[in-house]
Amino acid sequence: MLSSQNHASSSEAPAAAPPTSAEDSAAQPLQDRGSNRSQRPTSEAFREFMASSWAPAERVEHPRDAVADHAALRRRRVSEAFPGERLVLPAGPLKVRSNDTDYRFRPHSAFAHLTGLGVDHEPEATLVFEPVDEGTGDDGGHHECTLYFKPMAGRDSEEFYADARHGEFWIGPRPGLEEFSQRLGIRTADISELEVGVTKNAGAVEIGGTRIRLLREVDLNVDALVDTSRINTGVDLEASDALDAELAESLSALRLVKDDWEVGQLRESVNSTIAGFHDVVAALPRAVGHARGERVVEGAFFARARLEGNDLGYDTIAASGNNATVLHWIRNTGEVREGDLLLLDAGVEADSLYTADITRTLPVSGSFTPVQRRVYEAVLAAADAAFEVVRPGIRFREIHQTAVRVLAEHLDSWGLLPVGLEEALSEEGQHHRRWMPHGTSHHLGLDVHDCAQAKRELYLDGVLEEGMVFTIEPGLYFKAEDLAVPEEYRSIGVRIEDDVLVTADGAENLSAALPRGADEVEAWMRRIWES
Q: Which whole-number Å values give the CA distances from 27 to 20, 42, 436, 439, in the listed order?
């Protein structure tokens, strides 16, 4: 029986026919239909009640963040490189994972580096360097910097409870303009002012306009804003693309040498990562009995990353058995079997967004077989040799050259090279690289592969300086189907990776607390299982 509120009396006029699907489409735009599930009240009484009886926001003086002075020095270096030009650096927008569900936000690394903002702060924010007379800008530089972002709407607004992306009722409180200004020592402005801040006086420098350089492909809306301004003012788009690329290159190269604060963040990330490796070893017995044992490994490490950091620095490689010969195995759907090796390549990303990147290859049973140990100790010898050459003044490429020579010597001694050692090592040969096709090192920082847009002469051909941080990660990978090696080597993949800080006279292994030697690894695993 229908309820009275849904049942029309016989004296009432017949109900109108339901609208057709075409009428429905005309009445409600497609983009508005995501809210159909919410059943949110729309009455004025509801709006008035929602806007009332909230405690006033507490006014607090916020101390300056520890990173603020370092970020200011970085901005000054950028200012020195681009006097007289407006620089536009977006943080990036939220990215949809599924329908109306977003991924956790992570800003572009250049934005994070120059503002000091980490974690999930301020999607759609933009940092703008406004040119001023030389020497009259921030900290004696040539620009005044402003951080534009969307401040949180008050509790008397509909956004407070109706906006699932920005409303406080949905996502919790966020810092406001004043708080970020105090904490970061930087001007702040409402995002509604960004268009004017970016486009005012913009145009061809030949006729007195202000040149804009943009960090492209970070936020398509900001790209469109700048491109429209360029078109409207007759600026050469092809030439502008080249100038934008120079900015990206410069911002990437700026991170090649880490300051003391950055090194401290990397130390924290490394320490949390080492704790995560401990958790994985503790979880190995459970992983062995599971159809997706690699997922048990992945989950154990992820729990540590979320407990002590912001997230993973990159998808964890939890590769057991032959999967360890797949360089970037991140499906992690395989079993973990007694007698196999587990290659674990993982890193915790700190709240500041600096990440570690460490690899250990672990005997699942707790002990290496003789052939596993043979391969493991060859890789360790290559890593140790690479460490020995690291010091200020050598070229980055020398690290790789040193490591692969040691690997080639071992492969030669095992009779695996199809040619002589020197022929294999020659540019015309490189036969040994069949079993290690990747590089030995990459810079590390806000990105796991940091500084990737820096010029070749500053990166691969660059000279090491005190304060650089990078990995050393040689490996050997003998696939199950590799008929170029004896059967005893097949399905063995070994990589050993540590995070290295260049010091005044050599190198510091930031991840040295994690056992590396074969005997040390076995003893460490036993201690964890016995505790």
A: 11, 17, 61, 58
- Give dist(CA 386, CA 440) in Å, integer: 9
Q: How many CB atoms lie within 10 A of CB 303?
A: 13
CA 170, CA 153: separation in Å to the nearest integer? 12
Contact 94, 106 (CB under 8 A): no
Maximum distance among all Cα pairs of the chain, rounded to whole angstroms: 102
The length of the chain in residues reads 531
Question: 12-38 in b/e burial notation, b at 16+ Cβ within 10 A?
Answer: eeeeeeeeeeeeeeeeeeeeeeeeeee
Instruction: Report whether 348 contacts 269 (CB < 8 A).
Output: yes
Residue 181's CB is within 10 A of a number of other CB atoms, namely 17
Q: In whole angstroms, what is the distance from residue 86 CA to residue 83 CA?
A: 8
pLDDT at position 23: 55
- For strands 507-509 and 498-502, give the pairing: antiparallel
Q: Give Cα separations from 75 to 137, 230, 476 (angstroms).
A: 11, 25, 42
Pairwise CA distance, residues 325 & 328, whole Å: 9
pLDDT at 10: 38
Nearest to 91 by CA among 41, 148, 137, 142: 148
What's this model's pTM, rounded to 2 decimal places?
0.92
